[in-house]
Amino acid sequence: MWKRNCIGFLLFLMIIASCRPPVFPPKPPGYFRIDTPAQHQYKVFDQPGFPYTFEYPVYSFVFIDTANKSIEKKNPFWINIVFPNLNGVINITYHEVSKESPLEKLKADSWYLTFVHHEKADSIGTMEFDNLNGTKGVLLIVGGNTASRYQFVISDSVKHFARGALYFDVTPNADSLKPANDFIGKDIEHLLQSWRWR
């Protein structure tokens, strides 16, 4: 009887010991999945009174930047193209080329704003373009964990000058933002190819 009780007790202990939950090794760090639209589709931004027009994605919206009333009076043609599902925005600023704002100064200011990122940037590449509407510009691609991967300047070299930059409302991380950056990068290229001055 004593042996039977011992065997029963040992079996009970073995059953209890085998009921521990399985232990899984920790998973490596990962990133949230970024779902981009299935395809690129565009509509025309053709606001009355604006000195420019272009095509922008249907999965984004444009709003006129009126956050600062003094800016609104001086620069009423500043806009933001917002990508709500990707948490991104393209800020576009516009300046009329004049004696007070010569083209060379506007270019120098734009280069300065781009090269502020040089401490975090792995690289800064430039791609010049000349679209079918006679508009010229430069697309800058900033590599690394920077606040803005894509920036551009666009001008007719006589009267109009615009600058744009893509930002995301998250901590900059080139790896996690790569799908969104690549997707919106194609939209920026289309925007630049469709840009027309009035």
What does the model show?
The chain is α+β, with helices and mostly antiparallel strands. The protein has a single domain (51-197), classed as Protein Transport Mog1p, Chain A (3-Layer(aba) Sandwich). Helix content is 29%, strand content 32%. The model has no long low-confidence stretch (mean pLDDT 87). β4 and β5 form a beta hairpin. The strands form 2 sheets. Strands 3-4-5-9-8-7-6 form a 7-stranded antiparallel β-sheet, sandwiched between helices. Strands 1-2-10 form a 3-stranded antiparallel β-sheet. The chain is built from 4 helices and 10 strands, in the order αβββαββαββββαβ.
Give a short synopsis of this structure.
This protein is α+β, with helices and mostly antiparallel strands. 29% of the residues lie in helices and 32% in strands.
CATH topology: Protein Transport Mog1p, Chain A
CA-based gyration radius: 27 Å
What count of domains describes the coordinates? 1
Helix content bin:
25-40%
N-end to C-end Cα span: 103 Å
Low-confidence stretches: none
Give me the secondary-structure topology.
Elements: H1 2-18, E1 42-45, E2 52-57, E3 61-64, H2 69-74, E4 79-83, E5 88-96, H3 103-115, E6 121-130, E7 136-144, E8 150-155, E9 160-168, H4 174-194, E10 196-197
Antiparallel strand pairs: 1-2, 2-10, 3-4, 4-5, 5-9, 6-7, 7-8, 8-9
Keywords:
198 residues, alpha+beta, Protein Transport Mog1p, Chain A, three-stranded antiparallel sheet, 4 helices, elongated
